Amino acid sequence: MKILVTGGTVFASRFTAEYFAKENEVYALNRGSRPQPAGVIPIIADRHALGDTLKKYSFDAVIDVTAYNSADIDDLLDGLGEFENYVMISSSAVYPETLPQPFSEEMTTGANSIWGDYGINKIAAEKRLSERVPNAYILRPPYLYGKYNNLYREAFVFDCAEQNRKFYVPKDGKMKLQFFDIEDMCRFIEILLKKKPEKRVFNVGNPETVKILEWVTECYRVLGKKPEFSFVYDKIEQRNYFPFYDYEYALDVSEMLKLMPNVKPLCKGLFESYGQYSENRNAVRRKNLSEYIDEHLKGM
To answer: Residue 235: what pLDDT?
Structure first.
């Protein structure tokens, strides 16, 4: 297939471009400000000022990893030539936290106080895409992780494990998180493009959630270590010392599992993630979590 991937230089879009480039002719649309993915044909342009840049191309699929709002959708669609399939990566942030969980695709989307404008803009992007390309596929993942992750999430825990640091967890550490490996997301996109199911919106993710304590333990285990925990019950914003919001949610991914019943075990995904991180540490956008811990929490 001839495939267009938006972005292609950071985390999800980079992995997606390289994944599909193994067996397809893949083009990556980006501004050329970062190194290009391997095996991909770059198209250097801004999606908001495409002009006729893309008009000469015909794509079997467009995988839009970087659409954030309705303008992103409009500007790309206005600049595209012919294409057959369109897949947009949205977010679980489109579900209001007031809805019963697990969230299912049939639930009404709406503002979420945790995610704010990010969720509202993703809703607008979904709506515009569905209006203009009714047969487009929309994926709503939870927390993505895996190779090339530039967010300081599992990388923070790996750093703590390498430095034999005590790990500070919010409250009792039983808050649940739901993850999805970036490779599994690409596998599911591949299935959609081959099977072309009638359903257009899919929650995607691991079917099980994992407690903070379990997730941190798995990250330490990758390095052959076991964490020592300290529990933070003070009224401190947990994002100061922990890489996730104080927000527990779960997606119903049963529709995804009908098409792709097997997903990568978290332990395997974390092992692969650490292997890539250990060789590309500078690609991660670090936050001063350890510095905050040392200044405000050490000794608790």
So the answer is: 86
The DSSP line for 74-129 is HHHHHH--EEEEEEEE--GGGS-TTS-SSB-TTSPP---TTTTHHHHHHHHHHHHH
Do β-strands 176-177 and 210-211 pair in parallel, antiparallel, or remain unpaired? antiparallel
Residue 84 has pLDDT above 80, yes or no: yes
CA distance 175 to 191: 32
45 pLDDT tier (thresholds 50, 70, 90): very high
Sign of the CA dihedral running 241, 34, 148, 92: positive
Render pLDDT for 117-170 as a digit per residue (tens, 0 to 9). Answer: 999 999 999 999 999 999 999 999 999 999 999 999 999 999 999 999 999 999
> Does the global pTM surpass 0.90?
yes
**CA 118: distance to chain centroid?**
13
Ordered DSSP codes for 234-245: SS--GGGTSSS-
Peptide bond into 265 cis (omega under 30): no
Judged by DSSP in three states, 206 sits in coil
Q: The tokens of 149 are what?
A: 């992750």
Rounded CA gap, 104 and 100, in Å?
A: 9
Q: Is the dihedral of CA 274, 276, 279, 283 positive or negative?
A: negative
- How open is the CA angle 138-81-92, to the nearest 5 degrees? 15
Percent of the chain residues topping a pLDDT of 90: 97
What are the distances in angstroms from CA 265 to CA 185, 207, 219?
14, 11, 13
**In the chain, helix, strand, coil percent, each to 5?**
35, 20, 45
Helix axes 154-162, 212-222, angle to 10 degrees: 60
